[in-house]
């Protein structure tokens, strides 16, 4: 335990728990009484009043005795939350604006069997609650407990006179399990399961630790342990559970890396998520939680003139100060080591003041006075614009089209006044603007940002057709010849015509070219066998040929094109096929494109990456239709990708498959059973091709285009 939290930090946590426990201990019996009745009470009215000593008292009236609240305080943002079990909201509004003293607004939300009252504070302060009759009182401010001291004995006397013999013993909330999981990548999630949802929850940050205080929830001894979760690779390293009497404290130790956490409760389960964030996100989160960045100062004054406080703050900021004559009154404040902009905001809110900063001059006046002055200025400027005489200006547009700029300068965009008009001259690419001088000045300012050179992108495409061929051939050649030498001869060799074959010890036999029937024996010297049998001068020749080929081919084209950012580019290659159409007895010839086309629209992102809208279209000639026309087969691929500058994108999956079979045979002989194979040639072809597209976009720099 010492490795996670110093003894001082644990002591502070114990003191905080002990303080909250004492505040709850005297009210437990009343809570039991309020829960024994099933009748739901309703909030019927609300009111607030300021008290001496910079305090505020909030009163909630019910139609019956109100339930005792379970409450807790949140430091950032500063707020107090009260849960009223067995109550409902009978007010017409769920939000009450207070904006007085310490409290900004009050929100009432119904959650199942209870009403949750959320008081949004200007700063974190102490508070206390007490019940009197059918009203619940909440006092905000330093020493709030002194205000309700007189009310507490009355409650004690009422409890002494009550018959408590039949009151059941309280069923305390217990923590049933504590679990940890890694979810959604590397988010660490802590599950705290309880027997019911009545425990008060107070989550605080102390140093780099997150402590979940569960008021009124008992922790079994079996769960009082430390769990090491470093191996889960989440922002959480340890989860420590510790019991403190009838309360519990769960300490969650994050790693040193920046993180953000979110806590929420669903029925009897409290969930705390820890999500890793980048350094930039951590800084933004810190600014959102605490947006004040001014130099820190300390102020401790009792009943001081507010003008003097404003002058002190102005001296610290080294700014010129203008204060309205209507700003008056005194203020008591004690601020220690607080940014000056936060101190100024607290002072202004306390006195319903507001500020406007122009350059190095800060003007302070009542908020209503500033709002009225700004409304007056708006009306005055409107009248001045209506009285001004319109002027005509000719504005040259350099890079954009003047006609495109016209659509951006309408009255809806706030650049033209109600009497203004604008036209475009396409021949000179000039804008003709007629309006008052202030509107023309705004148009010129807008054109400085719109009329700029558009960045260009060079797109290099490589279109590759990968083809896999598989063909099989089987054929026979028959021949009958005559040789001069007598005797029986057998010729055997790789080829029959014109070859010399060795047979039976004779010197050599020249076989004449006498293959009379050719059924597909190829001239390729592979898998071919020839044999000749002769008697006297007659030679019968037979040549068998079997060929199987398996290969691939690539057809590559490499076009390049340059296009402007956001403008489409098209690369197309193909043919046009004529088609005949008949209309009213007249024959017309039309042409249809059979092309391979690539459409690319690039968009440059602020971080110099590219978003490409791609569309690939591949047409091919299909089968011939019965009417003699030819169909067109279309393959299309459309997608959007994000790539870095100069990276290559590969697209594929557009396949074509073609199977053919051809048979050649000798009439009559080729139709004989079994023997017909000797007079037949069969050719099977299986062709499969895939289109691969390699696209490489490159941003053209201005320096390169200049050279």
Structure description:
The protein has 707 residues and is of the alpha+beta class. The protein folds into 6 domains: 37-161, Immunoglobulin-like (Sandwich); 173-285, Immunoglobulin-like; 296-370, Phage tail protein beta-alpha-beta fold; 388-450, Ribosomal Protein S8, Chain: A, domain 1, CATH 3.30.1370; 477-547, no CATH class; 552-700, no CATH class. The protein has 11 helices and 42 strands. The strands form 10 sheets. Strands 29, 30, 33, 34, 35, 36, 41 and 42 form an 8-stranded antiparallel sheet that branches. A hairpin with a 3-residue loop joins strand 11 (173-183) and strand 12 (187-194). Helix 6 (306-317) runs antiparallel to helix 7. It is extended and about 120 Å long. The relative contact order is 0.06. One of its GO terms (biological process) is protein secretion. This is Type IV pilus secretin PilQ. Belongs to the bacterial secretin family. PilQ subfamily. It is found in: Cell outer membrane. Residues 319-367 form the Secretin/TonB short N-terminal domain.
The total count of strands amounts to 42
Number of discrete helical segments: 11
Q: Rg to the nearest angstrom?
A: 46 Å
Category from helices, strands and their pairing: alpha+beta
Low-confidence stretches: 1-11, 17-39, 147-170, 486-541
Distance between the termini: 68 Å
**What's the domain count?**
6
Shape: extended
| Overall helicity | 10-25%
Task: Determine the mean pLDDT.
Answer: 76
**Beta-strand content estimate:** over 45%
- The biggest beta sheet, please? 8 strands, antiparallel
């Amino acid at each position: 335990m010492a490795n996670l939290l110093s003894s001082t930090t644990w002591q502070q946590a114990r003191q905080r728990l002990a303080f909250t426990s004492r505040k709850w201990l005297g009210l437990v019996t009343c809570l039991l009484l309020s829960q024994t009745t099933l009748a739901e009470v309703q909030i019927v009215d609300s009111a607030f009043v300021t008290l001496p000593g910079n305090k505020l008292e909030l009163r909630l009236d019910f139609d019956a005795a109100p339930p005792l609240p379970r409450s807790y305080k949140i430091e950032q943002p500063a707020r107090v939350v009260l849960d009223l079990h067995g109550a409902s909201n009978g007010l017409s509004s769920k939000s009450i604006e207070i904006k007085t003293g310490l409290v900004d607004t009050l929100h009432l939300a119904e959650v199942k069997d209870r009403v949750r009252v959320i008081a949004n504070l200007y700063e974190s302060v102490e508070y206390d609650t007490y019940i009197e009759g059918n009203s619940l009182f909440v006092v905000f401010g330093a020493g709030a407990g002194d205000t309700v001291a007189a009310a507490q004995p009355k409650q004690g006397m009422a409890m002494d006179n009550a018959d408590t013999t039949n009151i059941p013993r309280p069923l305390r909330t217990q923590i049933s399990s504590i679990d940890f999981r890694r979810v959604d990548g590397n988010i660490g999630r802590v599950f705290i399961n309880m027997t019911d949802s009545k425990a008060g929850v107070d989550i605080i940050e102390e140093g780099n630790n997150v402590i979940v205080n569960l008021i009124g929830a008992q922790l079994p001894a079996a769960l009082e342990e430390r769990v090491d979760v470093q191996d889960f690779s989440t922002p959480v390293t340890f989860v420590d559970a510790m019991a403190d009497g009838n309360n519990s404290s769960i300490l969650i130790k994050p790693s040193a890396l920046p993180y953000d956490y979110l806590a929420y409760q669903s029925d009897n389960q409290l969930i705390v998520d820890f999500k890793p964030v980048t350094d930039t996100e951590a800084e933004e989160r810190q600014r959102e939680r605490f947006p004040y960045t001014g130099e820190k100062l300390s102020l401790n004054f009792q009943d001081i003139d507010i003008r003097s406080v404003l002058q002190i703050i102005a001296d610290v900021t080294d700014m010129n100060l203008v204060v309205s004559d209507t700003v008056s009154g005194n203020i008591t404040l004690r601020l220690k080591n607080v940014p000056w902009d936060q101190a100024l905001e607290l002072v202004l809110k306390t006195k319903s003041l507001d500020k406007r900063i122009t350059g190095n001059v800060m003007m302070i006046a009542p908020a209503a006075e500033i709002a009225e002055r700004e409304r007056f200025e708006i009306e005055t400027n409107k009248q001045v614009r209506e009285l001004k005489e319109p002027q005509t200006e000719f504005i040259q547009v350099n890079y954009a089209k003047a006609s495109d700029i016209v659509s951006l300068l309408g009255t809806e965009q706030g650049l033209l006044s109600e009497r203004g008009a604008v036209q475009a001259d396409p021949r000179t690419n000039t804008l003709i603007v007629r309006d008052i001088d202030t509107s023309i000045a705004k148009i010129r300012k807008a054109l400085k940002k719109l009329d700029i050179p558009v960045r260009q992108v060079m797109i290099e495409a490589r279109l590759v057709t990968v083809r896999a061929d598989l063909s099989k051939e089987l054929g026979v050649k028959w021949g009958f010849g005559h040789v001069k030498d007598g005797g029986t001869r057998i010729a055997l060799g790789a080829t029959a015509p014109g070859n010399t074959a060795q047979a039976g010890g004779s010197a050599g036999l020249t076989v004449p070219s006498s293959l009379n029937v050719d059924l597909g024996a190829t001239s390729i010297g592979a898998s071919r066998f020839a044999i000749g049998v002769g008697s006297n001068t007659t030679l019968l020749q037979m040549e068998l040929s079997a060929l199987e080929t398996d290969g691939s081919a690539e057809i590559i084209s490499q076009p390049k094109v340059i296009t402007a950012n956001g403008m489409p580019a098209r690369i197309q290659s193909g043919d046009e096929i004529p088609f005949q159409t008949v209309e009213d007895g007249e024959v017309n010839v039309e042409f249809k494109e059979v092309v391979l086309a690539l459409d690319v629209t690039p968009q440059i992102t602020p971080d110099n990456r590219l978003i490409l809208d791609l569309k690939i279209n591949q047409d091919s000639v299909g089968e011939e239709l019965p009417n003699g026309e030819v169909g067109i087969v279309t393959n299309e691929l459309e997608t959007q990708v994000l790539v870095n500058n100069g990276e290559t994108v590969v697209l594929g999956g557009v396949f074509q498959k073609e199977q053919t079979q051809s048979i050649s045979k000798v009439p009559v002989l080729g139709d004989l059973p079994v023997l017909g194979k000797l007079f037949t040639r069969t050719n099977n072809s299986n062709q499969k091709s895939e289109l691969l597209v390699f696209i490489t976009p490159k941003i053209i720099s201005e320096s390169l285009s200049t050279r």
